[in-house]
Structure formats: structure tokens, C-alpha cells
Amino acid sequence: PISYTAEWKQFGQERRGYLEWEEYFMAMAFLSAQRSKDPVTQVGACIVNSFNQVVSIGYNGMPQGCPDKDMPWGKTSDNPLEQKYMYVCHAELNAILNKNSSDVRGCSIYVALFPCNECAKLIIQAGISRVIYYSDKHKTKDGTRASKMMLQMAGVNYREYNITYRSRIILNFDTAETVCPNPAATAHANDVDASNATAHASAATAHTSCADDDEEGNISQSISNEAPRAVGEYISWEEYFMAVAFLSAQRSKDPHSQVGACIVNEQKRIVGIGYNGMPSGCEDHMMPWEDSDQDTIYNKRYYVCHAELNAILNKNSSDVRGCSIYVTLFPCNECAKLIVQAGISRVIYYSYLQPQLPQQQHLQQQQQQKRDCIATTASLVLFDKAKVQFVNYK
Q1: 161 with 186: CB under 8 angstroms?
Q2: Fold of 21-160
Q3: According to DSSP H, which parts of the chain are helical?
Q4: CA–CA distance, 194 with 177 (Å, rounded to integer)
Q5: How far is CA 73 from CA 99, 121, 138, 179, 351, in A?
């Protein structure tokens, strides 16, 4: 048998500071909320199975086929039919209905705000077994109290999100950095900033509020809020899907390159998410993480599963034919084979190269780029021959 425990440790260690599962899933919920066109309240939900795979995501909004601009978004009218409450679909509802798996029984749902009684019914009937919520600010309201009664009676476990995690995650597409301020900053709802550096870090920057009305029932903004959020106030589909890819990359334990991928079907539903890492069952701290130009058994290239591979295998639908894949880095030839054979028809990539590494790693980066150049060229040939469209996000 091959001895690896003592030998491999000298060839690098896994990255520290990666997102914990709980942070990742709650951040996914908050990021999804940035798609909401509700001018006051943006809420997201993320459903996760027992294998820590995201099986569905949702955010609050009007029903499909109901034009946002024609629907009421205010809440001050004396006529209930002119208030948003009669029409808006909550994040939990959309997440449950957006699933591509056969069901969500036994899954967990991460939500910004404790579910209302109507969403609690859906959660129970869908077979979801656990609710992790960020805010319970409406705990004294009858709807929330009824929700908790039903969840308890149905045996659905619910608990508050662990606020000791980082309070702010910034996704800068050029550096893919994760910012971890003082945990004391969690006095407010977690912010997930999806900042597109090529757009001067403003186009996709947004803050999530997990609250609806304040406790006195006052409107939290000075405007009437009768109209949906304007273009530019909510993130576009393209920004959203690429941001999901960058967010997933922050789960990677690779100390040199963190890559993410997000697969989307023709209905704009996310059907697969992945990031680069060691194979399941291989303990990260036992694996080699160095990537030098030496072609040895201690090179991570022999072991790391790329983001595209994991996204395709993590799919929650029967197949991904006709889907698009959003990737932070252009696929290598091995991933190109997977993409072509899986039937994916479109690749949207952010960069050909990794984000700029520290100066001491620059030589190593150059050596890596020489190897990658051949693999990238092969990918281009495969995509061209297989009629797979590839587009630069920038």
C-alpha cells in the first residue's frame, strides 16, 4: 500500500478561512434575495439535502406571468387588493417549487426570516425536516406563533443561525476575496455583496434586509414603494449566476486557486453547483495541495476534482442537456469533455487566468499557465467541434 500520511503533509496544506457549510448556505439565501424586485423586503431561501448539496433556491416575488410593473408593491392602501400581501410569493414557496429533484423530504431550508404560517404549511407538507433562520423579529405576531406551533407538532426542527460566523461576504469577481470582519458586526442582517469589479464594483452591489415592516408598522423608506425595484437595484440573472459560482468557490480548500461553477437550465433555475476540491472520502488535511512544475505523485493535479466536474455530478435534475454553465475560470480540456458529454450547450466564463497571486507565487503561476495553455486550446477545439457556445462574462 502507498504511504501518504507523513509524506504528503510536506506538500502543502488546505486553505484556511474557507466558508463553513452553514455560512455558505445562508449566504446563498441572502445572495438569492438580491434577485427580488420587492422595493422594501428582499428575502431568499436555500434548500439543502443530507449530502450538503443545494437542491433549490428561491426569493420573494410576484407569480410567474404577472408583470412586476403591473402588480401592487405597496402596503398602505386601504384596499387590500391594492396591497402586495395578496399576491407576493414568499421565498420558501418559490424554493420548494423550484426544486428539480423528485422531492425535498429530509432536507434543510435556510431562510433570512422565520417562515410565516403559510410557508410553514408548505415546509411541513414538502417533508422538509429542518429550518435554519437568521431573524425572528416577528416572533410575537400570531402568524409566526402559529408557524412555530405547526412546526413543533409536525416534528420539524428549527433553530437560529449561528451568528458567530462572519457577518459580511464580499464577492469581488477579480479577486474572489472573502472579507471576514468582527463577528460583533452581526447586529444587522448578513450582507452578501456581489461586486463586479469590471463595472466599478457598483452594478451588482446590494444589501439584504431580512425584515418586512418595522415593529410599529411604519414604512422603512420615504417613498411610496408602489413600484418594483428598478433595473440596477436588483442583480441581473447573469450577475446572479456568476455570483453563485464565485460564492461556491469560497468553499474550496485549495490554497492557490478557488474555482466555482453554476449550472442553469432554460427556465433560469439552478440545477447544479460545484467548486474545486479533493474527492469525497479523501481527507483534505492528508492530501497534497502544492502545484509545482514537477510531475510527481505529490502534485495536487492528480487528485483535485474541478468545479465543473462537481457541478455536473451534483446536479439535482435527471440531466443537464441544453443547460448553461457559469464558471469563474475557463474549463480545462478534461472539464470540456464532461461539459460536451453532459449536453451542456453554453459556457459563460469570467477569466482565462486565476486572479493575481502574491509576488512569491508569480513564478509558480507562470509555470502553471504554460501547462494550462495547452489544455485551454484543446477545450476551444472541443467546444468548437461540438457546437458548444462559449462567452466571456466581461
Answers
A1: no
A2: Cytidine Deaminase; domain 2 (3.40.140)
A3: 5-8, 21-33, 91-97, 117-126, 142-153, 237-249, 307-313, 333-342, 362-386
A4: 11
A5: 26, 24, 20, 34, 39
Residues 6+ apart with CB under 8 A from 168: 179, 180, 181, 185, 190, 191, 193
The answer for residues whose C-beta is within 8 angstroms of residue 206's C-beta and 6 or more apart is 34, 42, 193, 194, 233, 234, 235
Range 347-370 burial, b when 16+ CB lie within 10 A, else e: bbbbbeebbeeeeeeeeebeebee
* Cα separation, 394 vs 392, whole angstroms: 5
Exactly one of 92, 239, 290, 308 is catalytic; which is it?
92
Helix (H, G, I), strand (E, B) or coil at 305: strand
Sheet order of strands, 324-329 included: 270-275, 260-264, 324-329, 346-351, 389-392
> Closest Cα partner for 331 from 318, 344, 322?
344
Residues in the chain: 394
CATH assignment of 237-382? 3.40.140.10
238 carries an active-site annotation: no
Average confidence (pLDDT) over 71-88: 86
Q: What is the pLDDT of residues 115-164, one digit of tens each?
A: 999 999 999 999 999 999 999 999 999 999 999 999 999 999 999 998 77
The candidate with the shortest Cα–Cα distance to 90, out of 54, 140, 145, 143, is: 143
- Residues 213-234: pLDDT tens digits? 433 333 233 334 578 888 778 9
The torsion region of residue 387 among left (phi > 0), alpha (psi -120 to 50) and beta comes to left
Domains 21-160 and 237-382 alike in fold: yes
The residues with which 274 forms a beta bridge, in sequence order, are 261
Domains of the chain, residue spans: 21-160, 237-382
CB 108 within 8 A of CB 131: yes
Provide the CA 60 distance to its chain's centre, in angstroms. 16
Query: Average pLDDT of 333-349?
Result: 96
| Alpha-carbon torsion angle 36, 37, 39, 43, nearest 10 | -10
